[in-house]
Amino acid sequence: MANVSLDHARPQEPALDPRIPIVREKAREIRRRALTMVFNAQQGHPGGDMSVTDILATLYFGVLKVDPTQPRMPGRDRFVLSKGHCTGALYATLAEAGFIPVDALATYMKPMSMLNGHPNRNYVAGVEANTGPLGHGMPIAVGVAIAAQLDHADYRVFVVTGDGELQEGSNWEAAMTAGHRRLSNLTLIVDRNRLQQGARVEDTNDLEPLGDKWRAFGWDVVDVDGHDYAALLQVFDRDLARRRPLCVIAHTTKGRGVSFMEDQVSWHHGVLNRAQFDQALAELSPA
What we know:
Oligomer: single chain
CATH architecture: 3-Layer(aba) Sandwich
Shape: globular
Low-confidence stretches: 1-12
CATH superfamily: Thiamin diphosphate (ThDP)-binding fold, Pyr/PP domains
Structural class: alpha/beta
Number of helices: 10
CATH topology: Rossmann fold
Number of strands: 7
């Protein structure tokens, strides 16, 4: 019998998705830029910025069909940040993607800046909807997805909500409509960091069983590690063939990547002093 190479007999490791190194590097830079913006402005929501960053980086650098040179291109995918207070991460992402100049980030929250504490589509290229009052982005995204359905357009609509934001009833009215209309072009990502302003989500209004709630409204549901780029890419790629709206419950950590921020409710809208800022940037530097 012929000899068999043990190396050849072992299962082959799956090839690394070429998007992952790009997304990982972009996420690191987005976190650094977002923290710099909050530090310079001495206001913002850094905890939520850090928890949603990996989701934004995956979407913008691995999934979305968008073109910063044509931000209103009719066939573009649409992204709505319903948790509109996390503009540090959003603006840093848009700058990395080429929608706005990187230099503009230095004006964050300054008087007359286009980079307000909540995004405004009239001022910022790449922003699809004005958000800030929680519970508004999801209904907007449902309306956009209905428009695509009526026009027989093939663009997709993505919306990110916070988990605390799901206490707003408007989300569930929109969810019922999306399920009824079988909006297969709609993907909701819940930034499930389990913290909201002032308290843990479950201490304020327990959401569980969260997945079953969405299923009851006619949605497909996937739980995923919201910091795992490969898992996120797999979910967003797989949703191309579905027939119902998709809810991605992305389990994240508030303050992700900065040791003293992680899973601390005080960093919902805390600001960094110089020593904390220097430590955070050091922790987010390449190894």
